[in-house]
Amino acid sequence: MSTPTGKLTRVILLLLVMGGLYVLATHKHKQREELRQSTVALTPGCEAKLARYGLAAGEHYQSPYVLAKAGAPVKVRGYSEADVRAIQRGCNIIDDTQGHFARVAGAERWNSKRFIRGSHTSCDHCHQGIGDKQDASGNRLKGSLSLGASWVMADMYDRFTGLLLPYELRQMQCYINSSNGYKPNIADDLVRDVTAYSRFLSAALDLKIGNHYDEQGVDEIAASATIKQGDDYVRGEALYKEKCQVCHGRQAFGVVAEGRVVAPALAGPNAWNMQSRNYFYYVSTILPGFICRNMPLGQENTLDNQQCRDIAFYISNLPRPAGDRQGPLIALRNQLLMTVLPPLMQLTESAEKSPQPGQQAAGAQPGQQAAGAQPGQQAAGAR
């Protein structure tokens, strides 16, 4: 039987543990509140974007964009100082999800990397133009995944799950699938601030709640929208080498320079997983639509529908993370492919480029000397 002293000791230990957890939670809450009240250091892109849209605290807000486009001001409810800081933080998260520009990445971006497995993912890779892609004349672009247009859809019917998904849950799907990561809490400051920024974009562009806009999502391309040649891996590979390889790399593993992602990975451990709707074998219409409307950068809308489907088909056949619902065997297989295939492909390419023993200099006829060779000296590689 337990002695009174033993029971008292256990009670004291339990109280100490609970007290320690309370002190830790209070400390974390104080840290987060201090961060909410602190001045936001904007990324260069967000500084230009928010200045262009005239973000400032006040009783009313008037968008310079709407004034320039419509010729008349539209006055809406203004923003408090706390609202402005939330919008600024949300913009930073979209523009710099990995926190490269942050003074303290884990704090200023609410440690968004804790929800992401790869090192390439940034919201701006899909939601280009920091969630508001426009042409040189300031016209919003069809199929550009505008965050403002997405927010005004409110609870959007999701044909894949049969559910009405609020904007916050749609953000969670991005983290789980497109980022191959983990689901944030719906009340997390990360989700709240991105929602605040998206709502501000809708006001800055004068988008009405409940309306559907062309820039709201991807302009999907089905097989019926092509000349019905069938989706082809070989054509897709040739098109990828011609149109995409210069940015995304030979193996589509992305390009990083000086610690910054120049072009994100389309395959490999840093790419989206097999549960993402970008994955051609899951949804065959979304990735082709994104490619046609948004790629190559600076040459958008130059590929036809069949070319976009061929590129998407090729990309989706490259190794990538399996996702959490595919099971351990598929996850292991994909991990092996991502580990083994890249060096094998590099070896194959190196072997193809290197001259074979006994091979004559390019363009040299049998018995002909190489250019610049001394009399009696054979062409390089000739026996």
Largest sheet: 2 strands, antiparallel
Strand content: under 5%
The low-confidence parts are: 361-383
What is the residue-averaged pLDDT? 85
Q: Structural class of the secondary structure composition?
A: mainly alpha
Distance between the terminal alpha carbons, to the nearest Å?
94 Å
| Domains, number | 2
Q: What is the name of the CATH class of the largest domain?
A: Mainly Alpha
Quaternary organisation:
single chain
User: What is the H/E string?
Assistant: HHEHEHHHHEEHHHEEHHH
Number of continuous helical runs: 13
Shape: globular
Number of strands: 6
Strand order of the largest sheet: 1-2
Helix content: 40-55%
The name CATH uses for the topology of the largest domain is Cytochrome Bc1 Complex, Chain D, domain 2
Radius of gyration based on Cα positions: 27 Å
In the CATH hierarchy, what is the superfamily of the largest domain?
Cytochrome c-like domain
CATH arch. level architecture of the largest domain: Orthogonal Bundle
Can you tag this structure with a few keywords?
383 residues, mainly alpha, Cytochrome Bc1 Complex, Chain D, domain 2, 2 domains, two-stranded antiparallel sheet
Mind sketching the topology for me?
Layout: H1 4-37, H2 44-52, E1 60-62, H3 64-70, E2 75-77, H4 81-95, H5 105-108, H6 128-131, H7 147-151, E3 156-158, E4 163-165, H8 167-178, H9 189-204, H10 233-248, E5 255-257, E6 260-263, H11 286-294, H12 305-316, H13 328-353
Antiparallel strand pairs: 1-2, 3-4, 5-6
Helix pairs in contact: 4-9, 10-12, 11-12
